[in-house]
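Now for a typical sample entry:
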Amino acid sequence: MTPYDFIKDATIEEIAEVLYEYYQIGTIDKCREMKKEIEKNKWISCNEKLPNFGVDVEVTTNNGERFIGHYAGGCWYDSITGDYIQVKAWKEPSDPWEGEYK
């Protein structure tokens, strides 16, 4: 992957944020780690790319609902109920909260 691959689809704000973080941190490895985090949180259109078969991902439907779902056999399914859903975009699930319960 070249540096151009990162910036070609990024917004000006995303590029500025990465540059500012790089300026503060000053390491290429940390900048690459931040780039992976940005890509992880990016919604991917189903027309652009589909996830691996049967893998749970976060999805958003045509009417704005969000689920954990998976793509299997040419269709999308709610991973909790097994119901068929119409998915517009997907992304890797966010990390679980690791804070302290009070």
Q: What stands out?
A: The mean pLDDT is 81. The helical segments are 3-7, 12-25, 28-40.
